[in-house]
Design brief:
Largest sheet: 4 strands, parallel
Number of strands: 6
Strand content: 5-15%
Distance between the termini: 69 Å
Number of helices: 15
Shape: globular
């Protein structure tokens, strides 16, 4: 499995078993590697020639047993993805997807939410995820539905609800969104939850704008209703003022309103004299 990683100012080369500066050196070593005892060999490549990357993608199936990260300048990544939409960029290959693939290859079945809960409770390096999938297969076998109660003796389960999760649940109008919000505020407090939600709203809005400009986006960005995203952006970013109660702001969002609507309503009552009549 490979992933092309755009190089930015904040990009750091990961902890790899091998790091190569060109593909010719990579091929010499990769063709002699035996199967690793646990997990997969983790390899980093920083090529200069973009044609070498194209040639590798054409034969990447041959090296599917390796975990390969290819570091390229953003302009070269854009060039490649514009000409081949099947190329795996970092955005498309996430650690959770790797964990899902490891579980699927063993035909492991999970009750709703259990696979994600296990993933959140372990480290996300390849070896740990491979060991976890192996443990689940050894203990529960294939085609048996694994429940939360079954895995409790093996993992310290992380049930923390994060602000980003709450935001997505409200954008999708998930059934248990209010319960998740209460758990999140109990864990992080109102202020941290508020500003984390605001930051994530801005990031989602940027992704949505890029999608409309280029047509390139993750499945998450595509799944979010544009009208709801614009409404929640208006409530939290544009018209919030100094109001900071997350629960009330989300209630306003659900009703299609913002703080500004109440201010405007009061101004109308002043101008018509209805406020004094009351």
């Amino acid at each position: 499995m490979y992933s092309i990683i755009p190089i930015t100012k904040t990009t750091k080369v990961g902890n790899h078993d091998f790091i190569f500066s060109d593909f010719s050196s990579f091929y010499k070593i990769a063709n002699t590697l035996t199967v690793k005892l646990t997990g997969a060999w983790d390899i980093g490549i920083k090529p200069i020639n973009i044609q070498d990357v194209k040639d590798f993608v054409a034969i990447e199936e041959k090296y599917k047993h390796l975990r390969i990260s290819i570091y390229l300048p953003e302009q070269q990544v854009d060039y490649l993805t514009m000409r081949d939409t099947h190329i795996h960029t970092e955005e498309k290959v996430k650690p959770f997807e790797i964990f899902q693939s490891m579980c699927s290859s063993r035909n492991l079945l999970f009750a709703k939410g259990v696979q994600l809960l296990i993933y959140k409770s372990i480290d996300h390096d390849t070896d740990t995820m491979e060991q976890t999938a192996g443990l689940l297969y050894t203990e529960f076998g294939s085609f048996n539905t694994i429940t939360e109660k079954m895995v409790q003796p093996y993992f310290i389960l992380n049930k923390t609800v994060y602000p980003r999760t709450v935001l997505l649940q409200y954008l999708w109008l998930a059934r248990w969104r209010e319960s998740s919000l209460k758990k999140c505020i109990a864990s992080f407090g109102n202020d941290v939850t508020l500003y984390a939600i605001i930051n994530n709203i801005k990031k989602l809005m940027e992704s949505k704008c890029t999608y409309f400009k280029t047509g390139e986006a993750t499945n998450l960005t595509k799944s979010i209703d544009t009208q709801r995203l614009c409404l929640i952006y208006r409530v939290f970013v544009v018209e919030r003022g100094k109001f900071s109660d997350v629960a009330i702001l989300l209630k306003l969002y659900e009703r299609g309103l913002s703080c500004y609507d109440f201010i405007q309503d009061k101004e109308n009552q002043y101008s018509t004299g209805k406020l004094y009549d009351a």
